[in-house]
Amino acid sequence: MDPRIAPDLSALARLQHEARGFSFLNRQPVHSLLSGRRASRVRGRGLAFEEIRSYRPGDDIRHIDWRASARTGDTQTRVFTEERDRPTLLVVDLTAAMFFGSVHATKSAIAAEVAALCCWRGLRAGDRLGALVFGDDGVTEFRAHRSRAAVMRILGEVARRAEALAAAPPRPAGPSALNAALRRAEELVTHDAMVVVIADIQAADEAAARSLGRIARHNDVIAVPISDPLERALPEAPWRGRATDGAQTATIDPRGAGWQVPEAYAQRLEAIRKGGLRLETPVLPVGTEEEAAPQLRRMLGAAAAPKRR
C-alpha cells in the first residue's frame, strides 16, 4: 500500500534516518516553537545531585553551597549530572476519522510518521519509550523501555492500525477514544516524563484539555494536532459538495449560515494550548500537505532537511 495512505513497518523504520535536525529538549533556537516563555514548560531531562566539592573556575555560581562553604572555610559547590534518560510516552490517535487526506497524505499516515520520528529521536537521545496507540476499538499499551526492539513493537502496532483503517467504515471524529487514552496516560505517568499527544484536532474537547492540563502539572506535554487543509480553511465559494460519515449524508455549501471552519480550528488550537490548568502546553500543528519530518524541523527551529545522495 502507498505509505502516504498507510505506511508499513519498513517505511516507519526507514524514518530513523530522518529523525535529526530537531529536538524536544528545553534548549531551543530562538525561533523554535519550544523556545521563549510559553515553551519554558518543556524542562528537558532532570539533574541528579552527585557530590559537593571545592569550587573551580568556570563552575556555575548558582550551585555554590553557602552552608558547606561556611563550615569548611572554602567555597564549595554542588555538582549535578544530567539524567541519562527520561520516560517518553506517545499517545497516538489512529481512529477511523484519521483516515482522511486531501493533499499529500492521510492524517493517519502523518500521525504514524510523527510517532516514528519521535521514537527514533528519543531512542537516539537514550530515552525510555512507551506508547498508548488507540483506535475506535480500544487502546494498546506499551510500557517504557529503552531499546530498538521496543521501538519496533510500538511502530508495528502503529503500522497495523494504520493499515486496518483502509478497510474500516468511515466514522466522524469524536472525543471518547482520545479521552479514554488520556485518562490512561494520567494513570501511567507520575512526574518528569515527556508526553507527546499525536491526535486529530477535531476529537479534542474540554475534557481532553483538562486531562492535558493535569498531566502537564508534573510532566512535560507536547500536543501534536494533525489536520488537513480542508479542515483549516474551505475553498473559496461558490461551490457545493456532499459529505458522509458512513451513516448520514449532508450537503456542504459554504455560502450558508454557520460555516466558521478557520475560526473553529483556531479555537481548538487555543483550547489545547491553554489546557484545563492554563499551563501553556506547547502545540506543534502538523498537516497532511507534506511529510512530517520537514514540518517538525521548521517548527523546532532546525535547518533544512539533510540532503539525500
Keywords:
Rossmann fold, two-stranded antiparallel sheet, alpha/beta, disordered C terminus, 10 helices, 309 residues, 10 strands, 6-stranded mixed β-sheet
User: At the third CATH level, what is the topology name of the largest domain?
Assistant: Rossmann fold
Number of domains: 2
Sheet bearing the most strands, described?
A: 6 strands, mixed
Termini separation comes to: 25 Å
Please list the strands of the largest sheet in the order they lie side by side.
5-4-3-6-7-10
Cα shape = elongated
Radius of gyration: 22 Å
Low-confidence parts lasting 5 or more residues at pLDDT below 50? 27-32, 35-41, 303-309
Explain this structure:
This is DUF58 domain-containing protein. Residues 51-237 form the DUF58 domain. InterPro entries: DUF58, vWFA_dom_sf. The protein has 309 residues and is α/β, with parallel strands linked by helices. The chain folds into 2 domains: 9-38 and 85-230 and 258-299, von Willebrand factor, type A domain (Rossmann fold), CATH 3.40.50.410; 47-82, no CATH class. It is 33% helix and 20% strand. It is built from 10 helices and 10 strands. It has helices spanning 9-14, 36-39, 66-72, 107-124, 148-164, 176-188, 206-216, 229-232, 261-274, 292-299, and strands at residues 47-54, 76-82, 87-93, 128-135, 138-145, 194-200, 220-227, 241-244, 249-252, 286-287. The strands form 3 sheets. Strands 5-4-3-6-7-10 form a 6-stranded mixed sheet, with helices on both faces. Strand 8 (241-244) and strand 9 form a beta hairpin. The chain is elongated. The protein starts with 8 loop residues before the first helix and ends in a 10-residue tail after the last helix.
